[in-house]
Amino acid sequence: MSVRKAIQEVTDRIAQRSATTRGAYLDRIAAARDEGVHRAQLSCGNLAHGFAACSPADKARLAGARTPNLGIVTSYNDMLSAHQPYETYPALIKQVARESGATAQVAGGVPAMCDGVTQGQPGMDLSLFSRDVIAMATAISLSHNMFDAALYLGICDKIVPGLLIGALTFGHLPGVFVPAGPMPTGMPNDEKSRIRQLYMEGKVGRAELLEAEARSYHSAGTCTFYGTANSNQMLMEIMGLHLPGSSFINPGTPLRDALTREATRRALSLTATGNNYTPIGHIVDEKAIVNAMVGLHATGGSTNHTMHLVAMAAAAGLAITWQDMSDLSEAVPLMARVYPNGVADVNHFHAAGGMGFLIRELLEGGYLHEDVKTVWGGGLSAYAVEAKLIEDALTFIPAPAESALPKVLASVKAPFAPNGGLRMLTGNLGKSVIKVSAVKTEHRLIEAPARVFHSQDALQAAFKANELNGDVIVVVRFQGPGAIGMPELHKLTPSLAVLQDRGFKVALLTDGRMSGASGKVPAAIHMTPEAKNGGPIAYIRDGDVIRLDAEAGTMDVLVDPAEFFARAPATEDLTPQHFGMGRELFATFRNLVGPAEAGASVF
Fold it and tell me: How many cofactor units bind, and how (predicted)?
């Protein structure tokens, strides 16, 4: 299967741009492979420490040089619904490994924090940085040199990107990502959103709001809206790092366990001790990264991946840009309507045909590279399937010919829009990204006076004081990665939506984040350069007219440039936001972090 010209052009320029760094990366993982089965390099004392707590049978296997040993890197905790199901995975993986004549050990755990819990709280300032902490924790977990392959147990926002960055630093090791799945559908997302807005308007109380939230987030599993967590799962499958059809199977089901068992067997089959050696560093190449970006656009995925994909690609020696993403967005049709881009959730998406249908349609349309390596083998066409449990046997059947819910998952020939919902904005204010898949066409162009805030709390106070009673472009600055860690600002969504519902033209402009949960209000986010670094956003004053055109991809302040830059840039004492809730430990991260367009990475 050949891909369309626009897809190939982006792929080629990524390969050309990355030739030197990718070549160096591949040389490094080849050298690591040449060292052989890694625990064979350990001294007797080293090895004895490494298997001291194992059973006698596992010790006997580990004492030899040829029996594969799987490292399990887990994000398990039992506070967060998405990660709680991982409690039982290590025992299941070890059992399957032993049945296969191999061994498995929990190599280490990585932190898993939740933007939903920390939303609007001081802990949110650690959220983005947790990705790079997770990458480092993954490296520490694998540093004992005991493993022939790894299984990565992760789901949510920063966890999967962090795990993949860490995994790619051990790119000579095969790796399989093992999902846990979304919780069953609870309260409809549009009803939850309605109650949130009523609460912001003071029309319902906290008890009613809490009841609605609890009915939405009600059991083990990932949140069901299409934010960063579920975008992660889509990415891992379309990149060939999951088993086919495994992303959106609910936790605690026989099919979920069967897929985890098979993931274990598959990881064992990929090690250098056999004949099918497939290191993760070979799977994640420029074609896989382009496939990931295509999937993100086709599904209206999370804006956080405008940073995470850049950072993940860099870990494999690949350089991608926002321009690459924007060009692909123009070429790829929007095929999914999942909340906040519609009323359905990921369970509906999966029931409609899910990833198998999506991948087959995109392949047939020429939007994906089929000739890629995957953990399953056979190229990406092997992922155009559904996973089923038939008479207790894991079976893969062809994806349905038609979507069962065409208002949720469309065919490539009749998409919801001819292009993706993610765009780059440029202009005299710098660069930013905007997600428009949930924004109605009539709201995509706005020219209005600015109202400037230096915190989301200040904006909330102005809203409650009824100060925002006309057309406005709300500017929330000093929220960037170098300022306070680039927290999620999704808490602002209900307030801005209320203003829009009152008939005002409203938009948000910020150097902070809004994530995949951003909704119907246009939001120019990830502004770079950020205010702390003296970017143009620092020069905006109340009343400056700003023009944001999401269709044309432009964002400009309509002030004479000589006058605008003659101003002194705004400053802010951020010290209070650098202490408390552990934030003081991240001063080095704030000082080292790169800009959003470069992945907001400390590496």
Answer: Binds 1 [4Fe-4S] cluster.
